[in-house]
Amino acid sequence: MLLAASLPGASDEKRIAIYSLVANYSLPVYDQGGQDYVGLLEILEPLGTVTSQTNGTRWRLRYNDLETQFTANASRARIQNHDFDLPANFVLASGRGLVSLSSLGTLLPQILGGPVTFHENSRRLYIGSVGVHFTAQMGGGNPPALVMSFTSPVNPRIATEPGKVQMLFTREPLMAPSSTTLTFDSKNVPSATYQENNGAAEIIVNTRVPLFASFSDNGRTITLSPAAQGKAAEAAASNAPFTSPNEIAPSETATPPTPTPPVNNPPAVFAVVDASHGGEERGAMLSEQISEKDVTLAFARRLKQQLDAKGLPTVIVRDGDNALTVDQRADLVNQAHPRIYICIHASSLGKGARVYTGLLPPANGESSGPLLNWNTAQAGFLVLSQSVAAGLTQELQNEHLTARQLAAPIRPLNNIATAAVAIEVAPNGDVASLESADYQASVANSIATSIVNMRTRLESGQ
Amino acid sequence: MIPRHLKFGIAAMALAALAMGFFAGRERRLARQLEPPVTDSRPVAPPPSGATEQVTLYVAYDDPGVLLPQSSVIPLPSGRQQRAEELLHALMDVYAAKISQHPLGPGADIRNVYLVDPGLAVIDLNAAFASGHRSGILVEELTVVSLVETLTANIPGITRVKILVNGKEQDTLAGHADLSRIYEAATTGELLNQMRAQ
Asked: Which of A283, A404, A406 sits opposite B135 (nearest CB)?
């Protein structure tokens, strides 16, 4: 899963959303002679071991053990010694190999060796059987509520306008229902429509009354109740396995914005991993060739894999080369309500890893009711964060890595309303070790192991 | 006997050389008249005056990433603001040394230190300080805490420090350390304790 800003729908930029069992991510789409193109290396990078080499007009790409060769401005490619015709010419731009979106549906199965579903018009690419399906029907109660059931946990962005509720799914591989228009036998909620656009999926529920949304079944069920029933639903939802703060109440019944403290139940997202920097903000230049933003992304992806593999659902804030402000990152994290936020940084200074917690001013900012002061949202979680940092430091040291725990004045730690740490990974030897798969896996494994060890404590929020 | 055409040639060349010399001299005089007077009207900071005093500078060491107190004897003026500036200039001298344990970028300097009552000091770094600073959490944190602690430890009454770059607020020093906030002496004091140990 991904957070919204790393996927289309969060900006006007043309992007393609890619969903796979390994990672969900999005990539920018480039216009080449009126056709949409995307970087092939960038598509494959999160999915396996991939390298590329340019030799004049030839571009060779190796994905795991599979050799491919493309020629600039030619439509014929070689895949494992077999010719393959692309529907549009291959483009070589500044050493980057670009393929047309129209070729993805046929090209990727050849390279990946598995099925691929591509919704070209909405630029949503599903690799393997990853689709999330849903049903919607009016449930019991008086007045009746609309109950939407999903095959996997979801956490859409919910917005309202007079007469409709919009749910934007930027991080979930949602699949269209058999009919894009759903009708219900209800005066209050007569219908809903499904649509896809620029990599995002959207469900629009048409309503004649203000609705209140609550999440249950670990994020697999969204119930839209008429507002009169909202408070009761809220109370019920607080006892459900997972609740989202994204309650909607059109106009007058709007609920306070995040951050709010999480409830003591496992959320759909256990951990959020943030690859710091991105886009034009490169972070530190670790060497002439290595940018901090690339190292943090690689580490973040490995850590997500490790945490997912250990049964802790994890999302990445930035899973592509896009820029996000610290406020955007904090906002996305607080909306996801994870148990822990881990921000990855990298440095050429020193060795091993440094684990940081927020540096709050002595007099914490005032919070009012469910609303927390933005600049000191971390205050209620700092003790837990420090405990997590101590555990992480210990685990890294157990693996014979140099590790140290500090506080640091870095954002967005103070804006996060859950346990939050930043980890600055330094080389293990020379700077090039930061790009070493073994080193990255070793650090990621130590972090993931430590988080697993603290799972109970993180779930209790104490 | 010298042929006539050679005599004319030599005479013509001599005339041309004289004319060019005259022209060049005239142009030089004109240029001199157009040039602005070569004087620098910028105020020059007087050398620090006053009795020498022993102060404690908090000096960063990149390897192993610690901040350690270092005693130094420097001349300090009587005014609080001038004292604050001299303290930080002394710290800059440590970092500008050939063998610096925490090198800053070329031209890095403190533009001004303003003391704003009650207890707030504003350090204004020059643009080169931030643009040439190495990027990273630890390396930036070392610099910030070094500046704040050196000031708060030696100038009584300073409890909070704000850092500007070229007179303006900047989000971070070099991509990491938050400069949008005000640093409280009590908070950085705790941080100092962490940073004194490896």
From this structure: A283
